[in-house]
Amino acid sequence: MTGASLRFGVWALTxxxxxxxHHPLDPPDASWERNRRQILEAEALGYDATLLAQHxxxxxxxxxxxxxxxxxxxxxxxxxxxIELIAAIKPLLIHPVVLAKMALQxxxxxxxxxxxxxxxGWYRPELERAGIGFPEHDDRYAYGxxxxxxxxxxxxxxxxxxxxxxxxxxxxxxxxxxxxxxRPTIYLGGESEPARALAADAxxxxxxxxxxxxxxQVLIQDLARRPRRGAPIRFGMSAxxxxxxxxxxxxxxxxDLFAISEQDKPARARLVANADPKAQMFRTAAKEARVxxxxxxxxxxxxxxxxxxxxxxxxxxxxxxLFMLQFQPLDVNMRRFAEQVIPRxxxxxxxxx
Length: 353
Description:
Layout: E1 7-11, H1 32-45, E2 49-52, H2 69-79, E3 84-89, H3 96-110, E4 114-118, H4 124-128, H5 137-155, E5 160-163, E6 168-172, E7 185-189, H6 193-202, E8 205-208, H7 213-224, E9 234-240, E10 242-244, H8 247-261, H9 265-273, H10 280-285, E11 302-304, H11 305-318, E12 320-326, H12 330-352
Parallel strand pairs: 1-2, 1-12, 2-3, 3-4, 4-7, 7-8, 8-9, 9-12, 10-11
Antiparallel strand pairs: 5-6
């Protein structure tokens, strides 16, 4: 389906870990120093993008450390030279004129490598306890629709007049504009109907939580046939990877990770209890046990280097352009994937060309 180049990204360790918080070789560490070291190494290894997720308080517990997304993205913009920096944002947290100004600043610091990832938000306490409030699911998307229209207009340099239910903007314009392209890229995820509709209308890239290939194909086909203004929508997917010399070794590692993650059960129960029950992400996750967040191992990128490479090529043929990956332990497996899986993917692509 796709003729777009295939790219690989890694989730920045803003939360300290994207799997068990009890792994003996991968203790949670959300420090700036670890994130800086991780993303500089990812760029050196050839990864194309990183995603900095956003929470203000940690969903696994208030006692857990958490990196602030936007100041972290700005710092990484100054330190890196090639990797795309994608910063998540919950519209309820930052007014659109302020966010647009921040986005343009980081875009110019990075030399045109910045993107925003619009997320609806599902963790109630960080908004409710701050007095911001937590509107119903569809109302949050209605708010996000107005919000992103304002942000997009300001990022492209227009003088924005907007009078809606949530925002009243009179003749607002930002300078300097984007020196490198029309505006930063807009990513958006979510499987509900309001999320898909907003992605079709406002996003450049639709982010899919890791799922089996057949389910991903259904989502891609649905988004691809919706009317759009401008270029066709592109697709990215999150996935947790376990790649080893053989399928048996990878399967054994998955069993070990499931065993370690048993210690996280109380924290997971608290997280689900504090989540919006209408969030489709949790309904999808409940279909099967998995390691990692945002679909994790449900994408089936578990197996030998050859098996994982082949499955990636199959997802790419279905339309996935960007794979945003998680690993545990992070460092050794991020390197292993770059050294063992990416070359195999490129060889498979070359043979098929």
